[in-house]
Specification:
Layout lengths: L13 E4 L7 H10 L3 E4 L3 H6 L6 E4 L7 H8 L3 E4 L7 H12 L3 E5 L6 H9 L9 E5 L3 E5 L3 E6 L4 E6 L2 E8 L6 E6 L5 E5 L4 E6 L5 E6 L2
Parallel strand pairs: 1-2, 1-5, 2-3, 3-4, 5-6
Antiparallel strand pairs: 6-7, 7-14, 8-13, 9-12, 9-14, 10-11, 10-13
C-alpha cells in the first residue's frame, strides 16, 4: 500500500499514524487518498514500513531502538523530527508540528485500542487544539471529533451516535436523536450521551453553550 499526492498549499488534511490497534486495509487506503501528507509516530514506523506506505515525517522522542539509516534507506526522502519533551505525548507533538506547518486539519488512525491509557489520552487531548486544528480520530468502528457549538449533518435513521463530554458540557440541545437533550448537562464519569441514535433519515442538529463535547459516529 502506498500513496503520495501533490499537496495543494497544505489545505488537504494530513494523516497521523499513531501506535495503537491497526485499522483495516480499506480504511487506511481511503484516508491515504484524502490525506497526502503522512506523519508517523516513531514507535509505529516499522509497522508502517511493512505496509509500504509512503511516509513524509517520522516524529517522536526516539526513546526505543530507532535506526534512522535503515528508515531513510526505505523511505528517502523522509523528514525525521526529534521531539524529546517528556511532558507531551508524541501525538500532541505531531499536532503541534502540523499546526506549525499550517495544516488546517488532520485525520488520525491507530490512536485507539491496545493500551487504554493511551486511548483515553489521545481522544481527550484533542480538545486542547480546538482553535488551531480540526482533528478526526478514526478506527474501524468509530469516527471521533470535537463538536463546534452548533453542529448539523444529515444521517440515516438508526445511525449510532454518542455524545461524550470532556469534563462538563452544558446547555446541550439535540434534534432528531432518539433520546433528545433539551438544555441539559453531560459530565464525564457521571452522565454521558453514549449509545444514542438517529431517529429518522434527515438532519441532526446539536448545540451546546459551554464546555467540550465530542461526537462519536459508531458502527455496531
Amino acid at each position: 500500500m502506498s500513496s503520495h499526492h501533490i499537496i495543494r498549499d497544505e489545505q488537504e488534511p494530513a494523516l497521523i499514524i499513531a501506535n495503537g490497534e491497526a485499522c483495516s486495509f480499506e480504511l487506511m487506503g481511503e484516508l491515504l487518498e484524502w490525506s497526502p501528507f503522512v506523519v508517523v509516530l516513531d514507535a509505529a514506523i516499522h509497522r508502517v514500513l511493512d505496509l509500504n506506505i509512503k511516509v513524509d515525517v517520522v516524529l517522536g522522542d526516539f526513546d526505543r531502538d530507532f535506526d534512522a539509516e535503515n528508515i531513510i534507506s526505505h523511505q528517502y526522502p523522509i523528514e525525521i523530527v526529534h521531539t524529546p519533551d517528556q511532558n507531551k505525548t508524541d501525538l500532541e507533538k505531531a499536532f503541534e508540528y502540523l499546526i506549525g506547518r499550517g495544516f488546517p486539519a488532520v485525520n488520525v488512525v491507530w490512536a485507539t485500542g491496545r493500551r487504554a491509557d493511551h486511548t483515553i489520552t489521545n481522544i481527550t487531548n484533542i480538545v486542547r487544539f480546538r482553535n488551531q486544528l480540526k482533528i478526526v480520530i478514526l478506527d474501524d468502528f468509530s469516527k471521533i471529533f470535537l463538536l463546534s457549538k452548533t453542529y448539523e449533518k444529515w444521517y440515516p435513521k438508526g445511525t449510532p451516535i454518542s455524545l461524550i463530554p470532556v469534563g462538563i458540557a452544558t446547555g446541550i440541545r439535540t434534534q432528531n436523536l432518539k433520546y433528545p437533550l433539551n438544555n441539559e448537562e453531560l459530565s464525564i464519569g457521571y452522565r454521558t450521551g453514549s449509545s444514542n441514535e438517529v431517529e429518522k433519515d434527515g438532519m441532526v442538529k446539536i448545540t451546546y453553550l459551554e464546555g467540550d463535547l465530542l461526537l462519536m459516529e459508531c458502527v455496531d
